[in-house]
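Blackboard transcription, Thursday session:
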Amino acid sequence: MDVLHGLGYGLGVTLQPANLLACFVGVFVGTLIGVLPGVGPTATMSLLLPITFTMSPTASIIMMAGIYYGAMYGGSTTSVLVNIPGEAASVVTCIDGHQMARQGRAGPALGISAIASFIAGTFSVVCIMLLAPPLTSVALRFGPPEIFGLLLLGFTMVTYLTAGSKLKAVAMALLGMLLGTIGLDPISASPRFTYGSVTLGDGLGLVPIIMGLFGISEVLLNIGAGVKQDVFETRIKGLLPSRDDWRRSSAPLARGTVLGFLLGILPGMGAIIPTFMSYALEKRLAREPDRFGKGAIEGVAGPEAANNAATGGSMIPLLTLGFAPNVAMAVLLGAFLIHGVQPGPLLIKEHPEIFWGVIASMYVGNAMLLVLNLPLIGLWVQVLRVPYGILFPLILLFCLIGVYSEHGNVWDIIVMLAFGAIGLLMKRFGFDPAPLVLAFVLGRMTEESIRQSLLMSGGSFAILLTRPIALAFIVAALLVALLPLLLPPVKRLLRTVPPDDTT
Amino acid sequence: MRRLLAVIVTLVALTIALPVAAQQYPTRPVELIIPFATGGPTDTAFRIIQPQLAASLGQPIVLINKAGGGGAVGMDLVAKAKPDGYTLAATVRSTVTILPATQPDVTYKLADFAAVGAFAFDSGVILVKSGAPWKTLEELVDHMKKNPGKVTYGSAGLGTNSYFNMELLQQAYGVTLAHVPFGGSGPVKNAVLGGHVVVGAASLSAVLSVVRSGDILPLATSATKRLAVAPNVPTMTEKGHPDASLSTWMELYAPGKTPKPIVDRLSAALEKTMKDPAAVAAIEKAGMTVEHHDPAGTLKLVERENEVVLRLAKKLNLGKQ
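(Written on the board underneath:)
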């Protein structure tokens, strides 16, 4: 079955009323939980899993996928308007998105988020359709040494995540890495810093940390500072970005899309790391990096494109290999298995209606989301326009429910509240939480991949240098890390040479 | 003195009342604690049988996910729960055998639970990439013998069935391998497909799709007899190594002191559920094999496996800090 024929067939499947409804319910619920802080797509998909028992397999997968990519749209709304990430992958959008809102430019910030999401989302569906099999074989070549190289490159980006002091950013990154070592050692499974607690064996959860550092701390900060609800006092108008906005955002949007999509395919990346990477990349490439953190639209367009493209990318290993590259995809895999469908190389042959139906539904779903998030943005804004006196307790409540629903564990709530207090102190003293979160995510994976690499090679570091993809990443990481140190002396040398010649 | 008398009278009354209560059991919804997050294979298996099990019991079944500590948090909760049959553990066997044996922080043990029954298993499987020079386990073992300590194998992680199966295999054949732990059967499958490790040990449900497509060649399973989904693949038992045959068994446990009548009532409900063709078909579709065991039969299997696990854990010095 060729691609166009397949897509036509898939559209036929999607446009059946039951499937169309499932798609709409999925993206609507996705947007809603995206807007609500704390409640993330993984927890929601898990909670709704039992409902899919009574649905057809195609409709359930369409709905589940819709929740996942729908959440990526909604998450940015809360980030922009209240500086609290609506879900974990929208953390970076807070940095410049909220600054734009403070400058009365909430409209363009929300507009570019929705448009970037739509473009990236649609692009990634086209890629899934055309490139799924070849990309899978590339993803398979990413073994532990290649992952290590990639993560090393990720670490060089950490200091670009803050507009403030570089030293403070490094300090936060180190703290994040340390926090990541809590729990069972990923290789020998021996407990580290668990103090005899079984619960700590799993380590600290990412969602409680993010919701604490960004959500709870922001609420506490606002209560303490008696912030006025100024963002909402002016009507949000002019959703469409200006010509200047477009000029600034188009390249970051394109780069964010490609970056997010490629990273999304790789195991363990999820939708969060691509947003950090995209933000750091844009700041690195920008002519005026100082504008970042002060309302640069590039800092919204890039990451928002990246997280949507990543959700599409992460569908590839699931559909073609039956392998879930992140937790949300693991839940989606569960939805497949509950219906007795094995995603993998044979999915397209055994269940063409699911494979093509889901792909076609993602086109339809992205179009629905654009409508839900541009003309109807006012609806979501209304949710957040509730007076702070009511909104903040509600946000706290949603954070509590969201964090608890992930594992059903009270411990996660304690972690979130503790990090809320830590985050408040950090913000008060000018420490950015973003480097901490990125290092927390990267640290554990880096340790695991380097130790796996060394086990593969019998202890020889040569494995990192003899595999071309790994080597390329490591060289790139070294260049990125050392260039700022090497360039000034080189430039100075170059500048001093010509005068010497003339004398 | 009067207080002591009151206590005695109450206790006597309770012991008389208990069988009566058990006859009526269950009179309210039964909670099944799943010690893992939603979406995983254990969660899937119990969600599949939830409606039929509830119908057989005549009371709703509430599934509660209490993840943490690799399953230890939820299991600890059930070990300490009131033994009244209303709080049960819906879990896999390794949480009562391997987990306490390998994790020093886990304080419960097998004796803290009463086995209600086993109903299905996800077989372990030893696999290589298709096109690899070995077509049988013997050929692979031969290669391992010629390259001691050089052949790499990927497992789903230390303390998983896949790891124990491979360690037991090494002992059985007198070979040494280089172990690379991955965080689950899915990553193992990728590592084998990508050629990052030579051998993989994983659970069948996770690799079934690539086994069917012919991308991966299974060399042996940990099932007791050949599987309907993979009839050409020999079992480790056939090869003369029944100990190196750990599978992911889906089992139901009650707190240790739960009265026998309640355990029997639950066991009868589970047995009836597993006679429902719809439940059986749904479980087998998910890549698992249905095989029901009553409380005594389950306990026998678990205790035997626990001996193997404890012996190996001691030998490998696992679980000691």
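Lecturer's comment: The mean pLDDT of chain B is 90.
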